[in-house]
Amino acid sequence: MSDQPSVISSTTPLAARMRPTSMAEVVGQKHILKPGSPLMALATPVEQGAKVSAASVVLWGPPGTGKTTLAQVVARSSGRRFVELSAITAGVKEVREVLERARNDKDLYGVSTVLFLDEIHRFSKAQQDALLPGVEAGVVVLIAATTENPSFSVISPLLSRSLVLTLQSLSDDDIKQLLVRAIEDRRGLSASVTASDEILEHILRLSLGDARRGLTILESAAVSALTRGASKKKLPAISVKDIEASADRALLRYDKDGDQHYDIISAFIKSVRGSDADAAIHYLARMIEGGEDPRFIARRLMILAAEDIGLADPQALSLTVAAAECVGMIGMPEGRIPLAEATIYLALAPKSNTAYTAINKALDDVRNGVVGLVPNPLKSSNFAKAQSQGAGVGYEYPHDSTRAVVPQRYLDDKVLGQKYYQPKDVGHERELGERWAKLRDIVRSFKTK
Question: CA-CA distance, 166 to 171, in Å (whole number)?
Answer without folding.
Answer: 15
